[in-house]
Amino acid sequence: MLINCAAYQEGQKLADIPQEAISDYVQRPDCFVWVALKDPEAGELEEMREEFGLHELAVEDARNGHQRPKIEEYGDMLFVVMHLLEMDANEQIRIGEIDVFVGANYVLSLRSRSNISFLNVRDRCEREPHLLKFGSGFVLYALMDAVVDRYFPVINALEQELEQIEDGMFTKESSARDNIEALYALKRKLTVVQHSTTPLLETVHKLFGGRVPQVCVGMHEYYRDIYDHLERIVKQIEALRDVLNTAIQVNLSLISIDDSAITKKFAAYGALFAMPTMIAGVYGMNFDMMPELKWAYGYPLALASMVAMDILLWRRFRKAGWI
Amino acid sequence: MLINCAAYQEGQKLADIPQEAISDYVQRPDCFVWVALKDPEAGELEEMREEFGLHELAVEDARNGHQRPKIEEYGDMLFVVMHLLEMDANEQIRIGEIDVFVGANYVLSLRSRSNISFLNVRDRCEREPHLLKFGSGFVLYALMDAVVDRYFPVINALEQELEQIEDGMFTKESSARDNIEALYALKRKLTVVQHSTTPLLETVHKLFGGRVPQVCVGMHEYYRDIYDHLERIVKQIEALRDVLNTAIQVNLSLISIDDSAITKKFAAYGALFAMPTMIAGVYGMNFDMMPELKWAYGYPLALASMVAMDILLWRRFRKAGWI
Amino acid sequence: MLINCAAYQEGQKLADIPQEAISDYVQRPDCFVWVALKDPEAGELEEMREEFGLHELAVEDARNGHQRPKIEEYGDMLFVVMHLLEMDANEQIRIGEIDVFVGANYVLSLRSRSNISFLNVRDRCEREPHLLKFGSGFVLYALMDAVVDRYFPVINALEQELEQIEDGMFTKESSARDNIEALYALKRKLTVVQHSTTPLLETVHKLFGGRVPQVCVGMHEYYRDIYDHLERIVKQIEALRDVLNTAIQVNLSLISIDDSAITKKFAAYGALFAMPTMIAGVYGMNFDMMPELKWAYGYPLALASMVAMDILLWRRFRKAGWI
Amino acid sequence: MLINCAAYQEGQKLADIPQEAISDYVQRPDCFVWVALKDPEAGELEEMREEFGLHELAVEDARNGHQRPKIEEYGDMLFVVMHLLEMDANEQIRIGEIDVFVGANYVLSLRSRSNISFLNVRDRCEREPHLLKFGSGFVLYALMDAVVDRYFPVINALEQELEQIEDGMFTKESSARDNIEALYALKRKLTVVQHSTTPLLETVHKLFGGRVPQVCVGMHEYYRDIYDHLERIVKQIEALRDVLNTAIQVNLSLISIDDSAITKKFAAYGALFAMPTMIAGVYGMNFDMMPELKWAYGYPLALASMVAMDILLWRRFRKAGWI
Amino acid sequence: MLINCAAYQEGQKLADIPQEAISDYVQRPDCFVWVALKDPEAGELEEMREEFGLHELAVEDARNGHQRPKIEEYGDMLFVVMHLLEMDANEQIRIGEIDVFVGANYVLSLRSRSNISFLNVRDRCEREPHLLKFGSGFVLYALMDAVVDRYFPVINALEQELEQIEDGMFTKESSARDNIEALYALKRKLTVVQHSTTPLLETVHKLFGGRVPQVCVGMHEYYRDIYDHLERIVKQIEALRDVLNTAIQVNLSLISIDDSAITKKFAAYGALFAMPTMIAGVYGMNFDMMPELKWAYGYPLALASMVAMDILLWRRFRKAGWI
């Protein structure tokens, strides 16, 4: 579905143009076309391939979707794949994808499986004509910047999730089983986020370090800034993973400690039953000569001694922290 | 066993040729021969070595089989070893091997221990004469692309296997012992797949980055595309391994939790027995003066108190989640 | 909040200057201005941006705060971000930030969320005019040196914390639950410190190895010295992490050992009850012909045998280390 | 002990020569001497040092023995240290060492603490005069190839050992204690093999990649082949280690599972005793009014109810898989 | 404290010289001064700084002590920091430090917190005038060689310690608690040794690979030899660490196994008590009609059946390996 299609010159928007006019504008030097598609169909992609003269392999990747984040050069064209991450209402991560084709005088962005809109990126670019003069390279920067900035709330949500689990773990407010399930689910999410961000970090480097693609020339500081943001995200993820792995180990220790506490508790209560049972057994013996049995206060004394010894035991267990 | 033997020129098939004619066609410039063998015998290999003038060490590797995936240059010739992976009916992985010798005007592929056919690769090449014009380098690309594409279903099968185990783990539908055996078996399979794919990733780089073998010149984007697919596979495997290791740890926690639950359950039931036994012990004592024993309702009261206390205990244990 | 604003020439302080005069002094060759701000507001930052002509992206980073430690070049300007670490009264780590903009003839430092003062750095610089002649590059060195030196007491505090936990672990002075919570909290702190220091180590290298920014030229040994201190810190952290991970594992073993000891203890005491109960049970049987029951000393003998066997058992358990 | 000492020219053996004649032959261009010693004594080593003019430090290493595998250049001379691995009758690994000094026209090999003979290497070389023409560089290749080929059976033995342990683990044919001891012993052996092979892999690279020592020039493919074999070995070891680490974790899970199963079993049997004991306790009470006691069938009914309830319990436990 | 101060020329000792004469001798070409201090005080250090013209930062490092091992160049001067490791009588590791300043014609060594003497290094140098001709570079080599050689006995002591723990672990000669404490202590020591040796390995490389400091020129093989020894040490440590980590895991398994064995044992003995108690309970019931009670041999038969069933159970438990 075509979202937007406009031509720009000297940092100013010329006009919204019809799809058929694209190839005309692409010819004009000092002018570039910016097209945005959403969940494009095979037919639309094929038209775009012809209008812009895109490389077969890149278009095939875009058609198949589910690529790893990457930046590839096909001659003068850049093909950029990024993941779009959202937290849905159930705290699950939704992964969308944005594929961007960037040439000297065009930017074509294809957004798939995501509701994240990039209209504000277009607004920002049009508000900053002194930067938009850089042409398609600045549009790519603005798109990447917007994508990467959306990663931060996702990471922060995962960090909060971990903190909640930690609280539950140490205060015993949640069961060990719930904790371990939550830790595992978090690990799964982290793995997803990591595989959306780490490859992008690795690949962004080629936009500002060493030999740089033609469209990115002169924008060194801007792409380095994206790299810097990505690195922060990636390091946050690594730290989270590290802490998470420790949390899983620690949780196992906590389970063992609880287990041990319950064993003690039950064993202690067992002793409270076993003691009177033993005394009762003694006075249940059938010896002819058991003087206590004849005493008037034998029975109450026996009962009293049972209770007394249980109280004694109970106190000791209490003191030892077992009950 | 000779599967196929044909000569190509200018991207078009010239003819199926007999084995003896190979050396004639190999002489002709602008022409290349494409030979496919299956489970070749020592004699066939020796003939091929002579027809194409292959290097002794490469042929020895092909004869021995069970090589690691690799790409080696012997002068102008490329020697490529790849693994062929299939899931058999019992969800076990079968590892075959394809060895490819590529020279300026020949491609010789040897397939061993595998039923994966590459006839469709030949079809594809013959349908794309504008690419087949690249010569043997494109055939190599098409073969590699086909091999690598077959890895995806295997990885996906392993991912599904993991998800099934996870479901069983958390829903208690399968026993802890089955889970741990399944996790271990999955680890074993992952190790196999990893050792079939990771070395290939490392070695494919030399076909498009930096100095490139003569036969691959001009196909930069195509070999990079294979690298990209392989990287996706390798990263998926790494993610799987990582999750799998966590799953093994988590499973241990779940075992401890279950163990603890059962300990509690038994201890609770033990108390339900111990309580009446203690009371019965008391009234089994032989004191002369035990007024309760004379009461008409002593016995039913004693029984009632046993039942009442057990109900009380049972409720408490129930509330605590132990029973 | 403006803390300090002064101009220097030839290693000597010229004068404290008003904020408006900054741009005048910055023009003069052989002279540099050193401005220190604390928790700067947006307006102050904007003024500074204009006075010094700072790059938009760097100022934006400073405005947002919470950056990773880094050193970035914007043309001739260096932008340095460092974390300030303090242990507060509750042994928690407080993270502040210092952002430094360094040009050929200015140093602008912005300190945020921290009470660590850098007045002593200014004193030191003014006491060493032969070094201050190096200009803004030496001021940057002096600031970095001061920041890095503050990391050592934090690391040492964490090392002591680990040693205390270790003592508690092996002497059983603290509970397993406290130990595991303390180990986890320490892990968390270590992660924080690591993410404040490791990125700085990686980035400091560019101030003395290979091509060096203009302001740092000739100060090779000084920046290498900072690198050396940072490396010591980073390696100490790594060693701590490593030992900490082992401590968490070891603690799990200790929990298991204690658990096992308690199981033994309770089982042993259980036997001390079960033995007399069994004997009492035997003499509670109602057989007509039980000669012992008629003996005058039957009862005391039975009691004695109970006690004797319990003493025997108790000794054996004692010897085996179970009680 | 001198094993062998011969001179070669143009790929042909000239003659077995006495030790004293070595220095004469070493002078002659196009001719090289190949000497093999076994467990050499200090005196022999000293003689060789003089005959060949070996470097002091290399000779000292050879004298001390127990070196890490390495390849060092001393001017034109290569000094190669490799480990010789054998499985002895008790499935223990014996580590021997072979030190090789290679110059333009000599090869001196010193074998220590090993029964692996290299006579077949000499035979192979003499059977392939077209390769032996390469001179001492080919002899070195042939020796290294022979050493590396002997590593494969050792690795395979370790793989089989792991598979046996796995079988025992999952079929319960061997005890948990035996499994864990076997896994640990295997880990130890793997560590030994790894430290014999990995350093060699790292160092072999210098014989075919980049600048190559003079004696190895022109043998690129051959040394790369050794590298390839070594890499296969090293990767096999890494895979083994990885699986082994998982096996140790899995074994711990299996121990926990078994432990849990036994706890259940005993607790279940405990209930089978506790139930009749409780009933017997009830009918052992001394109330005057217990009508059941008067019934003619009271006793058999009581016994029957005990048995019946135990059968009931037994069935439930059986069904739950606890007995 | 000044230990030694002598001047050398052409590989020969000229004379012991007074401290004040140092600067005179340092001027003379082809002559070098070798000074050794032990636990130097601030004053001594300051004098040396002036005599030799040492760099401020290096002297400050030496004054502070507790540096990481490192090799730094200050202009033509080398500043080398190494750790001195000793095992004291309690098998604890004592860490001393030796700081060496090396210039074209001087060597100044400062030894701190260690009793390891280097007089034998001076002896060795004076016995090898043909090497001592290399000047201060050879003295540095000899010192480093001596320091590194002292690491071997420390590593070997740690290896033996591990082997002792292993023996205790598998033979049950030592308690699980002692094992785990010993393993942890060993881990601690290994961490110490690793942080004394690994940084040195990394830094030694600059003395023989690539561009080499002036004083080390021509001694390539000698410094590489030190590197080789250090690498052996570092790899031994890594192997030890790896085995140690496994040992800690294995020990946890062994604890679980023992725990399980004791659970079985106690449960089995529990059954041996529970069985007679149950039978006694049955014959303690007060039914009027219990024919066995009337039999003359009822009592002995009951006792006999108790004993018989216990023997039966005992045998079964014995067979199952539980007792």
From TrEMBL, chains A, B, C, D, E:
Pfam families the UniProt entry points to: CorA (PF01544)
Mostly located where?
Answer: membrane
Task: Tell me which UniProt keywords the record has, alphabetically.
Answer: Cell membrane, Ion transport, Magnesium, Membrane, Transmembrane, Transmembrane helix, Transport
**Where found, per UniProt?**
Cell membrane; Membrane
Q: Where are the transmembrane segments?
A: 266-285, 297-314
Membrane topology (UniProt): Multi-pass membrane protein
Which family is this sequence assigned to? Belongs to the CorA metal ion transporter (MIT) (TC 1.A.35) family.
Record's function text: Mediates influx of magnesium ions.
**Protein's name in the database:** Magnesium transport protein CorA
Species of origin reads Crenobacter cavernae
